[in-house]
Write a structure and sequence with these properties.
Elements lengths: L6 E4 L6 E9 L4 E4 L3 H7 L3 E7 L15 H7 L3 E7 L5 H10 L5 H14 L5 E9 L4 E12 L3 H10 L3 E5 L4 H11 L6 E2 L4 H11 L6 E5 L5 H6 L2 E5 L8 H6 L2 E3 L5 H10 L1
Parallel strand pairs: 1-8, 1-10, 8-9, 10-11, 11-12
Antiparallel strand pairs: 2-3, 2-7, 4-5, 4-6, 6-7
């Protein structure tokens, strides 16, 4: 039987963290600002958002710009992970697409990273990756982002814990980054789940529902919609300005302008 203790699951990027997102359109050779990766990927189910694991990221600037991305990954034994995908896809399939692409180069990664570094002086983390299209077998975009905590994030988490609500994070970002975020906001690392695809977020919600009641999901993007549908209560936050399709808004039970509004909502829920 589920306990009466509530659990709340936060997405990270755009929910706990204000994000700066930069992309490069490879075919147009154009830098795009405030690029919402999940919204773009959501329009075409064959697109997959991947994370590149390369530390420190600044070392990418030292690599030959004309090197194909596939060659860069293999020469430096660089690993990748799938951060978001609307369809089931394996890492091997993603690598096959990267290998097939002949246009995207290290220069395309360097350019988005440079733009992010120019704009993020007080950042929580910096990431780099790409969007791959499993239908056209190409890399349409290279991606880079950085994030910093929203002003009320720590206070919200501390207040929720004081109210007896267990706080979790489920995010498509790297596990190490999510564990660092957990440390920053004061929750145990065992409650931080990185590399969470939309399907994985749904699984996390369903698992928590065996132990907690109610289970609340807080997110801001299309990659949270399956978790919204699985949760007892779904809260959409608009603190990060970005494109949100109507089907995401319709999937939410509540909409808040900033995460501080969650506190009175939870206080009301706990009185029921």
């Amino acid at each position: 039987m589920a306990s009466k203790r509530a659990a709340i699951v936060f997405d990270s990027a755009g929910t706990l963290l204000f994000m700066q997102r930069i992309a490069k359109d490879i075919s147009r050779n154009e830098i795009l600002f405030d690029f919402t990766t999940t919204a773009v990927a959501g329009r075409k189910s064959q697109c997959v958002i991947t994370i590149i694991h390369f530390e420190p990221l600044e070392r990418i600037k030292e690599c030959p710009p004309a090197t194909r991305i596939y060659n860069f990954l293999t020469e430096h034994d660089v690993d990748i992970d799938i951060a978001c995908s609307s369809i089931p896809v394996t890492k091997d399939r993603v690598i096959e697409v990267i290998k097939n692409d002949t246009r995207a180069t290290v220069r395309d990664l360097q350019e988005v990273l440079d733009e992010v570094l120019l704009r993020c002086d007080d950042n929580y983390y910096i990431g780099i990756g790409m969007m791959v299209d499993t239908e056209t077998m190409t890399i349409p975009y290279t991606l880079s982002s950085c994030g910093k905590l929203f002003p009320s994030a720590r206070k919200v988490v501390k207040t929720l814990e004081r109210l007896g609500v267990n706080v979790f994070i489920a995010s498509g970002d790297r596990q190490l980054d999510i564990e660092k975020l957990a440390d920053r906001i004061g929750i145990p690392r065992r409650r931080a789940f990185g590399l969470s695809t939309p399907a994985r977020k749904k699984e996390i919600i369903e698992h928590l529902k065996r132990e907690y009641s109610p289970v609340i999901m807080v997110g801001d993007g299309l990659n949270d919609i399956l978790a919204f549908q699985a949760a007892d209560i779904a809260i959409l936050t608009l603190e990060q300005e970005s494109e949100r399709p109507q089907r995401l808004i319709d999937a939410a039970d509540l909409v808040v302008e900033e995460i501080g509004e969650i506190i009175p909502i939870m206080e009301d829920i706990l009185k029921r």
